[in-house]
Amino acid sequence: MRFRAGGQRPGLVEKQRFDKRSPNGKGIDPSADTRHAGCAPYIGIMTSDQSTATLTAHLDEAVGFTLPARHARGRLVRLGAVLDEVLSAHAYPAPIARILSEALTLTALLGAMLKDAGGQLTLQAQTEAGIIDLLVCDYKGGELRGYVRFDKERLAEMHSLPSLFALFGKGYLAITFDQAASGERYQGIVPLEGESLAEAAQSFFSQSEQIPSLVRLAVDDTGHVAGGILVQHLPEGEEGRDRLHTRLDHPEWEHVRALSETIKAGELVDPNLPFETLLWRLFHEEEEIRVLAGIPLEKGCRCNFEHIRGVISRFGEEERSDMVDQDGFISVDCEFCSRVFPISISDLEA
Q1: Residues sharing a CB contact under 8 Å with residue 97, sequence separation 6 or more, in sequence order
Q2: Most CB within 10 Å of its CB: which of 9, 144, 152, 157?
C-alpha cells in the first residue's frame, strides 16, 4: 500500500517493518488495533528525499483521501477549539449541544468537498412538532457557524437522551450548495429519517445524489471534541464523472463500506490519533491511498457592523423608520453568534 500525500507526488508512505512505536512518534504500534490480521507493524511518511516525517494528529481540520483502485473518496474531520467557540456563544443543554456538534461536523465534511473555494454549503433541518424547530449550519472557506432553535420546556420534560425523532419530530434535511464562481445553487431535500443525523445524511446521498455513501459522526464524553468520516463510491472515477449507472451493491463499494464500518467512535474523536494512522488502520490492504492537503477549520460568523449596516441600508427610508425602536436604534440579532447590533439612523447616513 502507498500513501500519496497532498494530492501530488512530493511524498509517499510505504510499508516498513519495525517492532514498536518509536519514542519520537514516527511509528505505529500494531497492537493498538487488531481489525486486520497480518498487517505491517509500521508505516512511515516518506518525503521526496526518503526521510521519515512525524505523523501529527488533527484537530480543527478536514482531510480528504481517495482509494483510486476502488473508485472511492472520503473526508475526515475532527473539531476541537472550533466546537468550543461555537457552543460557548449559546450555553445549550447537553442534548442540543451534542446534535449541533454532529451537525457542524457533518457540515465540515460536506463543505470541504466544494471545489469552488468561494462556495458555501448550508445544512438546515426544519421540523414540525419537534423539540427542535430549526437547526442551521454553514461552511464557507473553512469557516463554520451554526445554531439551534428549540423548545426549552419540552426538552426539560424528557427524562432520557432524546432520540432523533423526539428532537425533530416530522421534518426534513436540506443541503444547499452555492457556487460563487458560477452563481449556481443546488439544493437537495430529503425527509429527516433514521436513528441519527449520520443516517439522515446517508439517506440524502442515496435519495438525492444517488451516490453510495457511509457517514459516521461522533462526539466525545466531554463534549469538547467531535469527529466524522464520509466515504463515497464513484464508479466512474474519483473525480465523479457520469454516475447514471451507480450501483448501491457494487462489489467495490461493498468492500470499501465493510472496511469503513469498522471505524470506532473513539477513533474519530481521539485528538492524539493522526488521520494517516486511522486511514492505515482502515485501508492498509489497498494498493494506494491518496491523502489530500488538509483544510484548516475555524469558527467564522460573517456578521459585523459594516455588513449589518449594508443590509439595513438596502431597505427604503419608510421601512427603516418602522424598524427604529424607542431609543432610536434598529437592533439586529445574529442567531449564529448571539450578538445584537444596534444601528442608528445616523450610522446609515454616514
Answers
A1: 87, 90, 223
A2: 144
